[in-house]
Design brief:
The chain is mainly beta and 334 residues long. Helices cover 2% and strands 57% of the residues. A hairpin with a 2-residue loop joins strand 10 and strand 11.
Length: 334
């Protein structure tokens, strides 16, 4: 985003004031208590085509948590990180910059306990870069803004993410069940199978229908209040049993993870997780219908997290930029 007055528009090139970052998405590897963090790197570009008086040039990196208003919410805003680079220090007299393409490189190591970027219906964790070219009095400042996306990827060696999801048991000594999925984690947009095996231990017990429902749970940790949880149905599918079935029944149902799904995150302020219910409807000899509900957890990741899990990047040491910002021009030589 870049703002300027119409009167001053002729002073800059069409590119104006730009914030370029080395990576569009920054990745934290591992949980917040074990991650080594990552590094934000980039360049602030200021393109002048005519001489310009400037008071200062600064760049600010700001991370905030916002919890929105609602019947159950009290609006809150929490600052996570606030860092400022000053490329041109403000002084009593203005600087007179000559026409040029100015480049100011920046770098900031970010701690691994910063929460990842999140945007859900009643809250968000957001990181922004905000550049300001301050003008003398009565002149409009030039400004630019860029959102920085931070995602967290689980460690590939974590056992939790290598085990398939499964559950088995016997309900009231009348129905045996075994339910499983091939993997533990899926990607937004995927469709995955839920496989089930049912065995009636009562010859008069009739199985009617099996339904699977994917639910999304969002927990908001509001200061000075109990956590607030919201849950939403994302997708549902079912299959009706054959009226001539035997005492055992096995099958598979495909469950979709819609594009609107938020990927899992676990921060101090906002937590997103996913579970699916398997509902098995059975009929008693009396005609009464009962429902057995089995709950299983499933992980949902973004496309980027999926790519990182397949081929995590090699470790690179933190190094500083070798090129330094050019000196400001206080005098223009004609």
């Amino acid at each position: 985003m870049f703002t300027r007055s119409r009167k001053d528009s002729s002073l800059l090139s069409s590119r104006g004031l730009e914030i370029d970052v080395q990576k569009d998405v920054l990745t934290m590897y591992g949980a917040s208590n074990e991650s080594v963090g990552c590094v934000l790197r980039g360049t602030l570009r200021f393109h002048l085509i005519e001489p310009l008086k400037v008071k200062s040039i600064t760049l600010r990196f700001l991370g905030t948590v916002t919890l929105g208003e609602g019947a159950e919410f009290q609006q809150q805003e929490i600052n996570l990180i606030d860092h400022k680079w000053t490329f041109l220090e403000s002084e009593s007299d203005s600087y007179l910059l000559a026409p040029s393409n100015y480049r100011y490189t920046f770098e900031l190591p970010l701690p691994g306990n910063l929460p990842e970027s999140v945007e859900v219906p009643h809250g968000s964790v957001c990181y922004r870069l905000m550049a300001t070219v301050e003008r003398p009095s009565f002149r409009t400042d030039f400004k630019a803004e860029k959102t920085v996306d931070i995602q967290r990827a689980p460690l590939p060696s974590t056992d939790e993410y290598l085990q398939p999801t499964m559950i088995s048991g016997i309900w009231e000594e009348r129905l045996g069940y075994y339910i499983s999925t091939p993997d533990t984690i899926y990607t937004v947009g995927d469709t995955f199978p839920v496989m089930f095996n049912l065995l009636s231990l009562d010859p008069y017990f009739c199985m009617l229908k099996t339904t699977v429902v994917l639910k999304e749970y969002i927990t908001y940790n509001v200061k000075n209040s109990n956590p607030i949880m919201k849950h939403y149905d994302l997708s549902r599918t079912s299959v009706i049993a054959n009226q001539k079935q035997e005492l055992s029944w096995e099958g598979s149902l495909n469950l979709e993870i819609p594009k609107r799904t938020f990927y899992d995150c676990e921060t101090e302020y906002i937590r997103v997780c996913h579970k699916f219910f398997v509902e098995i409807e059975v009929m008693e000899p009396t005609g009464e219908v009962q429902v057995l509900r089995v709950l299983l957890k499933v992980g949902v990741q973004s496309s980027l997290q999926n790519e990182l899990a397949q081929s995590p990047p090699e470790y690179k040491p933190i190094t500083s930029f070798s090129d330094m910002p050019p000196p400001p021009y206080n005098i223009i030589v004609v």
